[in-house]
Design a protein that fits this description.
- The complex is a heterodimer of chains A (118) and B (899).
- With 118 residues, chain A is α+β, with helices and mostly antiparallel strands.
- Chain A is built from 4 helices and 5 strands.
- In chain A, strands 2-5-4 form a 3-stranded antiparallel sheet. A two-stranded parallel ribbon of chain A has the order 1-3.
- Chain B has 27 helices and 23 strands.
- In chain B, a hairpin with a 2-residue loop joins strand 7 and strand 8.
- Classes of the chains: A alpha+beta (118), B alpha+beta (899).
- Chains A and B meet through helix 2, helix 3 and strand 5 of A and helix 1 and helix 3 of B.
């Protein structure tokens, strides 16, 4: 868990980070580092989130109005910028989730199609 | 969300917080302080990249760059103040002239009436026979209706939410001890409701104020009159004003800015139309007269009804009304009734009100708009030319910046920002110039030209126009030079900077094209200026047939103070005697219609022994005059005599005719002693004896043709009302005017004296439009010529500087000064000739379009076009010669050493 380079992690597909951020925020406000940790932990450390890439994504979501931000204090008393899911963000998440499920199911069906048959 | 922006520092703080939090977490897992921080940074990745990405996505960046560009641009402009000042002044002239002329055009031609839903308004028009008395300001009486016809249309038609009528009149208003003249307007009771005008104070007129002739003694004041004349005193409501001798109760004040439905009108008092007989005492026709066509009619269509539908639905109604009307009048033959009955009723769009002033003002305004437009184009070309030179001079800077990785779009934006700074400064100065110009123009409008109520300040519409113009201008003059300046081959430009032998590439080509454009536009403007200036000169020196020097004229309306025609006659006689006895007065006379004004009178005549063709139009113009009229105005008496005191109300009727009338109706006969009748038809008997013939003279204005004219003595005018006095005197006009005023005051202290003017000034007033067009076109053309000369001078000087080395080489190899002179002048001359030819060609075509505005010359007047060519050649010759002379002063040794 400590040395991240050792494990063979999955790189994030373009555009997936946005959905993951939205999903993470459904449990309540989080700061950037917390979001990065949460994605990594929830995916059982399968996904690699380069922390630096997180912020442009947050910036993008904020300017679209899907999340809102506010400076606050973290549990260990550090100042941090907390992100919160907005109402439009919530509906967006529902849409994006459905889309992802369909996509992954479709890809799954193709990949698991018994090639030898016929 | 648009302006949701974060500062970079805020973003940096967040990243800092992130790394600290991550480090904290790693420390908990047992890393040392140092290791934890390093690992956290590693996990974050590239901080700078994240920061840059943030910056790129941030709106502040755009703003930052604009500020940067502006600061940089400002520094660049301040570094070359001469360029900056010339560019700004050039643009200010162009934008200022356009804005000022646009303000006039907007007010007169473009703006709709300040009433709700103006596009629902229509004006009624019915061309065709009338067979009665008609009054008309335009359109040959087709827009005049009788009151009974108006009322019948109002009752029978179902397409209007309101149908109104109005008629402007002059009134005398007494109150607060003095009697003054004012602009009155007779209106139908539903006038304000139909137009949806709200009162500022009290109430406006209603249908209940139009009950019976003479019964509605109320009045509404316009906002302007109320504030000007009564200091906006709210206690005016329910007070009484004596208007034309009749006390009227003021019931309210109309909305601010409402000036009736005719641009150029500025009514002071609105009076119910039923007060006609009291307000127009010498008019003579009762309100219910069916043969008196005197009222313009306008209506508001019901929502959803379009003009064509309304016109169709009115067709049968109007035909029935005409039939009934014709039968009641009984004045028509069966054939005449059929023609009367089939008159159409047309609806003209009324969003701009009734178009009276527009008819005369439209062409001059469009010409002026085109001219100022051309000047602005020339200004743009000039500034663009200057920018191209700057672009050339800055090629190295641009090349360096491109080499350092600047994007071209970014550089173009930078250059456009600079142009925008020039544009904004020029636009601001132009707006200041325009606000001065529009005030000067509006205040220069003489009274009596039907151009009242024009605003002399710039409003938001005009400001919007000026700003849009500025931005468009910036783009026009800025874009091409910016594209050109950034189109740089980095390698060659950095290498061979400054050491080229001859000039090259499109920078100079673009400037030459600009010069040709400028010269040709200038040629067009000069041709226009020449034509209009000669027109004005011709008009000012037109032979009027009148000796107008040293003659003062003024008007009074004793009838509007309740005088009967007999009392007015007595007044006229005694006023004439009183004035004749004043010191300094040479002679004095009177006419009932004022010379060189919009007023006129005319009727058909039946000359004795004249074989009249069927339906022949024998219309002549006429006025009633007093004794010594012809000597006072310097009109020669050719035969017979003028009127004397002996030609009285009861003596036999006499008249004097002008030469034109004599030629038309008495060709080959001696008219003296023959008779004429007023009116035509089978039952008229020529009963007015011709006692004299006088020379032709013009009546309306210098433009008009001489027409057959009939003079009769005012003592024989049964409805004597308004009087205009003519006083010839060798005294200065100012003190003489004061003497005349007090003489009238001695006779009748309550009689207002109007329009005291020297006849020469009155004539000059009537040439106002010609003078405005000529004055503006000449100044614009001179500005254009100056700009073109500057442009030509600039491009040649530049070429000389660029070719210094080449010239040096030529001279070192034995080239003569004259060769060099020819080389440089030849370059400039070629451009001028090309531009001049194109411009003259365009002007020859365009001048046809203004032919109607010209007087005494043709649109292709050879002398004018020749003068323009010579002028253009002289100006450009000078502009070429100066740089050429400098070229001959090039010292070959210096120029070859210089590098």
């Amino acid at each position: 868990m400590s040395t991240q380079g050792e494990k063979d992690r999955l790189e994030l597909l373009q555009g997936t980070l946005d959905v993951l951020i939205l999903r993470t925020l459904i449990f309540g406000p989080h700061h950037g580092q917390g979001i990065a940790r949460a994605i990594q932990q929830t995916s059982d450390d399968e996904l690699l989130v380069e922390h630096g890439a997180l912020y442009p994504a947050l910036q993008r979501l904020e300017s679209r109005g899907w999340i809102s931000a506010e400076w606050g204090t973290s549990s260990n008393n550090r100042k941090a910028r907390f992100y919160r899911l907005t109402k439009t963000g919530r509906t967006q998440l529902v849409k994006e989730t459905a889309k992802w499920k369909r996509l992954s199911a479709a890809i799954g069906r193709i990949l698991e199609f018994p090639a030898a048959e016929g | 969300m648009l302006w949701h922006t974060r500062k970079q520092s805020d973003f940096d703080a967040e990243i800092e917080a992130h790394i600290a939090l991550e480090a904290d977490r790693l420390k908990e897992e047992g890393f040392s302080e140092q290791e934890a921080r390093a690992a956290a940074r590693r996990a974050f990745g590239n901080v700078t990249q994240a920061q840059e990405q943030f910056y790129e996505s941030n709106h502040w960046r755009w703003w930052d760059e604009l500020r940067q560009d502006s600061r940089y641009g400002l520094r660049q402009l301040l570094r070359s103040p001469a360029f900056t000042v010339v560019a700004i002044v050039t643009l200010a002239l162009g934008i200022g002239a356009n804005t000022a002329i646009f303000s006039l055009t907007d007010q007169i031609l473009l703006r709709t009436l300040p009433v709700p839903e103006p596009q629902q308004l229509v004006v009624l028009r019915s061309p065709g026979p009338q067979g009665g008395h008609c009054w008309s300001d335009i359109d040959n009486c087709a827009q005049s209706f009788s009151y009974p016809m108006y009322k019948a249309l109002r009752e029978k038609s179902s397409v209007f939410s309101g149908l109104l009528t109005y008629r402007a009149i002059g009134v005398n208003v007494s109150g607060h001890g003095a009697t003054q003249t004012a602009q009155g307007v007779l209106v139908s009771g539903n006038y304000f409701q139909t137009l949806e005008i709200q009162p500022t104070l009290g109430r406006l007129l209603t249908a209940n104020d139009e009950t019976a002739s003479g019964a509605n003694t109320v009045a509404v004041l316009s906002y302007g009159y109320w504030s000007r004349q009564f200091g906006a005193d709210p206690s005016i409501v329910n007070q009484s004003l004596v208007v034309n001798g009749v006390p009227l109760t003021v019931v309210g004040v109309a909305h601010k800015g409402f000036n009736g439905i005719q641009i150029g009108d500025a009514p002071d008092i609105f009076i119910p139309v039923t007060m006609k007989l009291q307000m127009m005492p010498t008019e003579g026709h009762p309100l219910e007269a069916r043969d008196d066509f005197w009222l313009p009619v306008a209506g508001r269509l019901k929502p959803g009804i379009i003009r064509v539908e309304a016109q169709a639905s009115l067709r049968s109604i109007y035909a029935a009304l005409l039939e009934e009307d014709g039968k009641i009048r009984g004045a028509f033959s069966p054939e005449g009734l059929k023609r009367y009955r089939s008159k159409p009723l047309l609806l003209i769009g009324g969003a701009h009100g009734r178009l009276v002033l527009q008819q005369d003002a439209k062409e001059p305004l469009l010409v002026l708009m085109s001219m100022v437009g051309l000047v602005l184009l020339i200004a743009c070309a000039n500034v663009a030319g200057l920018l191209v030179v700057r672009g050339e001079a800055r090629q190295r800077e641009v090349a360096v910046r491109l080499a350092m990785g600047a994007r071209r779009a970014r550089l173009i934006r930078q250059l456009l920002t600079e142009s925008l700074l020039i544009g904004i400064a020029g636009g601001a100065a132009g707006i200041a110039l325009a606000s001065w110009g529009i005030r000067a123009m509006v205040h220069a409008i003489p009274p009596g030209q039907g151009m009242l109520g024009l605003a002399s300040s710039l409003d938001y519409r005009v400001l919007g126009f000026a700003i849009a113009l500025t931005l468009a201008t910036t783009l026009i003059f800025g874009l091409a030079p910016a594209l050109r300046a950034t189109d740089v081959d980095v390698h060659s430009d950095l290498k061979e900077q400054g050491s080229r032998v001859s000039e090259s590439r499109s920078g100079v080509g673009l400037r030459k094209a600009l010069i040709v454009a400028q010269v040709s536009l200038t040629a067009v403007l000069l041709a226009g200026a020449g034509l209009f200036a000669r027109t004005l000169e011709n008009l000012e020196h037109a032979d009027l047939g009148v000796n107008a020097d040293h003659v003062l004229q003024f008007s009074v309306s004793p009838d509007l103070n309740g005088n009967t025609p007999a009392q007015t006659l007595q007044f006229a006689d005694s006023a004439r005697r009183e004035i004749a006895g004043l010191p300094g007065v040479g002679s004095v006379s009177i006419s009932t219609i004022r010379m060189f004004s919009d007023d006129d009178m005319g009727f058909n005549i039946t000359p004795q022994g004249y074989p009249m063709a069927h339906d022949e139009d024998t219309n002549v113009r006429a006025t009633y005059i007093g004794p010594s009229y012809f000597p006072t105005l310097g009109i020669p008496i050719l035969a017979g005599r003028e009127f004397t005191e002996a030609d009285g109300a009861t003596s036999h009727k006499v008249c004097v005719i002008n030469e034109k009338l004599a030629q038309r109706f008495f060709a080959g006969r001696n008219p003296i002693g023959l008779h004429i009748a007023q009116g035509a038809g089978t039952n008229v008997h020529p009963d007015i004896e011709i006692v004299g013939i006088v020379a032709n003279s013009k009546w309306d204005n210098p433009r008009s043709d001489v027409v057959p004219f009939l003079y009769m003595p005012y003592s024989q005018e049964p409805r004597l009302g308004a009087l205009t006095f003519y006083v010839r005197s060798d005294r200065e006009p100012e003190p003489m005017a004061a003497t005349l005023r007090s003489a009238i005051k001695r006779l009748d202290p309550n009689l207002p004296v109007n329009s005291m003017r020297a006849i020469a000034a009155q004539i000059s007033d009537s040439l106002f439009d010609a003078r405005l067009v000529a004055g503006l076109s000449v100044s614009l053309a001179l500005v254009a010529a100056l700009m073109a000369a500057l442009g030509l001078y600039g491009v040649l000087s530049y070429i000389v500087v660029r070719r210094t080395r080449e010239i040096g080489v030529r001279m070192a190899l034995g080239g003569q000064r004259s060769d060099i002179l020819r080389l440089v002048i030849g370059q400039g001359l070629w451009l001028t000739v090309l531009g001049g030819v194109i411009g003259t060609f365009v002007a020859l075509i365009a001048s046809q379009w203004v032919a109607r505005l010209l007087y005494g010359i043709t649109a292709r007047d050879p002398a004018t076009f020749l003068t323009v060519s010579v002028l253009l050649a002289m100006v450009s010759g000078l502009a070429c010669y100066l740089p050429a002379r400098r070229a001959t002063k090039v010292d070959p040794i210096v120029s070859l050493r210089y590098e």
